[in-house]
Write a structure and sequence with these properties.
By secondary structure, this protein is of the alpha+beta class. Helices cover 25% and strands 37% of the residues.
Length: 183
């Protein structure tokens, strides 16, 4: 039936998302850059038009950190805000896709703009132990929404480290991008 009819489309969508030549332009719309960053490796990037979101997965070549980008349409402000709400992160379905344990809200200066962050430990969606169970990692979410585009959540994940270590590594990673578009 219907599932089989969609399978080739879904496979093409997934394959396009993994193709660096197709994925980098998607990343560039979210995190603008003049030349392709050398520290970043794009693993996947694709819009999901039906739900008004764009997903991108990158890797920091320096330390192996996982970087998740989630862009949401402006109409999704309430769902987006819950990603940065320390109280909501355990209760809300949307934020619970990647819950943080004992999250701590903070602020970070990113390329001249003070933005909100949320730091905590959480189960890794990518790292597993010998039994195949997810392992815990440190995650830092940074709100990189600018004045004109979609909401943008940048999540930086390392196996170990406190907020200061992840903040420093994330800022260094972001230094190859030009974040704030001037209207």
């Amino acid at each position: 039936g219907l599932v089989l009819a969609f399978k080739p489309m879904v496979q093409r969508w997934a394959n396009d998302g993994k193709n660096p030549e197709k994925a980098w332009p998607v990343v560039q719309r979210l995190l603008p850059f003049e030349q392709r960053p050398v520290q970043a490796e794009v693993k996947f990037a694709q819009p999901i038009s039906l739900v008004g979101m764009t997903l991108a997965v990158l890797k920091d070549k320096r330390n192996g950190a996982h970087v998740d980008l989630l862009a949401l349409a402006r109409s999704q402000t309430q769902s987006f805000d819950q990603l940065f709400d320390a109280a909501e992160t355990r209760e809300n379905d949307f934020a619970n896709m990647s819950p943080l344990f004992d999250p701590v809200a903070g602020k970070l200066d990113v390329q001249g703009r003070s933005v909100r962050t949320l730091f905590g430990r959480g189960m890794s969606s990518r790292k597993h132990d010998a039994e195949g169970d997810p392992v815990e990692g440190s995650k830092l979410r940074i709100d990189l929404t600018d004045a004109t585009g979609d909401h943008l959540c940048f999540q930086y994940e390392l196996e170990h480290g406190g907020a200061p270590e992840l903040e420093a590594a994330a800022l260094e990673f972001l230094s190859e991008f030009k974040l704030w578009k001037t209207p």
